[in-house]
Amino acid sequence: MSDTNTATIPERSEVPAEYKWDLSRLFEDDAAWEAGLKAFTGMIEGITSFKGTLGESVDTLHACLEYLSKLERLGERLGYYAQLRYSEDAGDSTNQERFARFMKAASDASTASSFFEPEIHAIDSDRLNTFLRDERLADYRIKLRKLMRMKPHVLSEAEERLMAMQSEANQTAQKAFSALTDVDFEFGRIDTPDGPKPLSHASLASFMQNPDRDIRERAWNQFYEVFEAHKNTLASLYSGSVQLDVYRSRARNFPNSRAAALFPDDVPEKVYDNLLATVGANLGTLQRYYALRKKKLGIPDFRVYDTHVPLVPDIDVRHSYEEAVDLISEALAPLGDEYTETLRGGLLGGWVDRYENKGKRSGAFSAGSFVGDPYILMNYKEDVLRHVFTLAHEGGHSMHSWYSVRNNPFPHYDYTIFEAEVASTFNEQLLLKHMLDRATDTRVRAYLINKHIDDIVSTLFRQTMFAEFEHQTHLMVESGTPLTVESLRSAYRKLLDKYFGADAVIDGMADLEGLRIPHFYRAFYVYKYATGISAAISLSRHVLEGGRSELNDYFDFLKSGGSRFPIESLKVAGVDMSKPEPIETAMDVFRGRVNELELLLREA
Q1: Concatenated DSSP letters for 36-98?
Q2: What tens digit of pLDDT does each residue of 417-457 get?
Q3: Can you give the pLDDT at residue 550?
């Protein structure tokens, strides 16, 4: 099922049930979801009965919070089910319609409850603090205190209602991008010595690791020719998304869209700037690695499609899905039996939608909710070692959700993405150490070191380049510069030149990559991958080189949910992301890995 030698990508109906996620813990079936949606819509009208009462007494505030919490819990279940069904096959009209109906209902609920935040902020601070001392509001204290700091950016009731009414329409650019790239795009096949193979978002990674440079070049060009043919549409969609970000930040009185995106997590803009500056100061090491690649591959011109092929040839590393689960379970043993046994049971028992099918969303994600399992979407390929690490990564997200749900009430169980990327990348660090500890052959060790370097390139350097691009495109719109195909490609090409250096050849279509990144439709998200791997590198050392106290600190972090802001939460775990030191530590590790690889390649 996962082999890249599969001649065709299967339809969803052709995928065996044991390879799909089991969504029955959310809703038994589609009919149960319909009943849930009916109950949800029936509750919306009741929201308005609380309007104008929140400041009267603890009783009225508590009653409103309880009602909204019940509605939000049901809405979360409905939303996750609809999203997951849509992700498994976005081309299915039933999935499209179900997701659209949920978004309509969620928008209606948001509109009906738009009075809530303005009313909370209208309550005198002393009176509200008195309310918060009442034990009936214990589960809501953190949520309300976080809400109070938003006061400068909350609009009037009428304005909040208008903002809420836009929520469904605001999904248009992102949904259109997903429909276009995941469903409508057809990338064709690539001729190989084993016959023609399908080219897709998922299989591109396999082709980019093929030792035959002609296959890599043909796959890369054929893939990007599809984006080239739709460049104007893609540029328009992304431009619309950025313009929406800028509009919302200005409407809420933020100085810029980046500040608006970072404010809810209480992440200072200097954290973003520290990342760009520290990574930028270490691009020489990245370019030295590219020079090493060029020399080892024996090519006169180093290009983008040469960045992923293993530098140690003739090592066929394959793991079936079940073998990958075994390997991950062994690697995470330092985290204890509860962690590993729970994760193993989930990976084999219905948490994961394992393999690619037509219409399925590309890439991977974990979707953890308060009710149901912390589900994982994969497009697993057994010949792509990165996918083993991806499964460990998404498993880290899912176990973070698992611990958060069991140690926090619903109002503040959910952690931020800033924190999430630490828990996930932490697992990758443990998996790498486990595999390196077992590697007795010089060539295998070189292969794994090469893989770790490529991970740091992809997660730290590449995501920082993405973050720099996002920052630039938003600044362009904020300064009145229109986003066009030409301006977007020009900005992206300059960053490619900056990161790859003068010795690399940047192909004519390389700058189209800036138009194909799904995360750009969730602005100022990608930098969290870079901060996440930096924190994870520091924390994995902290835990593995420490004792029970350091391990307990890490589990306190996993269990904290949304009870703290992310910078404070990570300080509990043992790392301070408000300073550049964790990024510098990651750069030191990268430099050491490149040095080690140079030595190993001489021996391999």
Answers
A1: HHHHHHHHHHHHGGGTT-TTT-HHHHHHHHHHHHHHHHHHHHHHHHHHHHHHH-TT-HHHHHH
A2: 889 888 998 999 999 999 999 988 888 899 899 989 998 99
A3: 93
CATH architecture of 12-167: Up-down Bundle (1.20)
How far apart are the C-alpha atoms of 522 and 365, rounded to whole Å?
A: 14
Q: What is the pLDDT of residues 303-348, one digit of tens each?
A: 999 999 989 877 778 999 999 999 999 999 999 999 999 999 999 9
533 CA to centre of own chain: 12
The pairing of strands 195-198 and 189-192 is antiparallel
Query: Secondary structure of 143-212 in the HEC alphabet?
Result: HHHHHHCCHHHCCCHHHHHHHHHCCCHHHHHHHHHHHHHHHHCCCCEEEECCEEEECCHHHHHHHHCCCC
Cα(223)–Cα(584) distance, rounded to whole angstroms?
A: 35
- The two tokens of residue 66 are 């309880």
Average pLDDT over residues 356-360: 94
Question: Structure tokens of 25?
Answer: 């813990």
Using CA atoms, how far apart are residues 572 and 581, in angstroms rounded to an integer?
16
What is the arithmetic mean of pLDDT over 481-501? 97
Instruction: Please report, for the chain, the start and end positions of each structural domain, with discontinuous segments joined by +.
Output: 12-167
Q: What are phi and psi of 366, to 5 degrees?
A: -115, 140
Sign of CA dihedral 514, 516, 519, 523: positive
The residue written with tokens 């049901």 in the block is: 74
Which residues are part of the catalytic machinery?
394
Q: How far apart are the C-alpha atoms of 65 and 42, rounded to whole Å?
A: 17
Cα Rg of the chain, angstroms: 24
| Amino acid code (one letter) for 563 | S
Per-residue pLDDT tens over the stretch 15-26: 999 999 999 999
Residue 366: its H or E element: strand 365-367
CA dist 311 and 294 (Å) reads 10
CA angle 539, 540, 541 (to 5 degrees): 90
User: Helix or strand or coil: residue 375?
Assistant: strand
| Residue found under tokens 């590309």 | 362
Dig out the tokens for 340 from the structure: 């590993």
